Amino acid sequence: MKNQNLCKKLFLILLLGLSLQLTLQAQENEYEFLKGPLTTAKDFTVEVFDAMPSEDYSFKPTEDVRTFAAQAYHIAYSLEWFSNQLKGTPIQWAPGDENDMNKDELIKYVTEQFDTLIEIVINSEQSGQFTAGVLGVLRHNSHHRGQMVTYLRTNGIAPPAYK
Which region holds residue 96: left if phi is over 0, alpha if psi is between -120 and 50, else beta? Predict the structure, then answer.
């Protein structure tokens, strides 16, 4: 009888300890599940940037839209802006000359900004407002990346396969 009670108590202590450990792990990585989708968005965006030849970065399908380079810069700059919003240190929207960077600089810039965003997201506490912000970033990125895919197609370039 005493052994049975001791076994029950040990089992409950073990169960409580395991539950506490799982709860702490879940709290430490509340947004870990977004790392994959954010990394995929980064990789796909870089592939779209890379698909356009350097010499065609000044292309724009009509006069009233951004160049391919300006679209790329807008995506990268907006990631920087959104990242600062999400971490609670907002910056003024002041993108400057969107046609000032070349292809290699833009690929580096967008890669760095995605890496920063991913780090901020996976280290943040979960909240509805924060989640809505992350979804807004992804939606904005997809919108402009989709425009860039149209630029590629207009130039007879097959865009990267959707991921």
Answer: left
At residue 142, φ and ψ (nearest 5 deg) are -60, -40
- What one-character-per-residue DSSP string does 92-145 give? ------TT-S-HHHHHHHHHHHHHHHHHHHHTSPP-HHHHHHHHHHHHHHHHHH
Residues 36 and 66: their CA atoms lie apart, in Å, by 30
10-27 confidence digits (pLDDT tens): 444 544 444 444 444 444
Structure tokens at 9: 């108590």
DSSP annotation of 158: P
pLDDT digits (tens, 9 = 90+) for 58-117: 999 999 999 999 999 999 999 999 999 999 999 999 999 999 999 999 999 999 999 999
**Contact of 89 with 155, CB cutoff 8 Å:** no
The candidate with the shortest Cα–Cα distance to 74, out of 62, 65, 63, 85, is 65
| C-beta of residue 46 within 8 angstroms of C-beta of residue 107 | yes
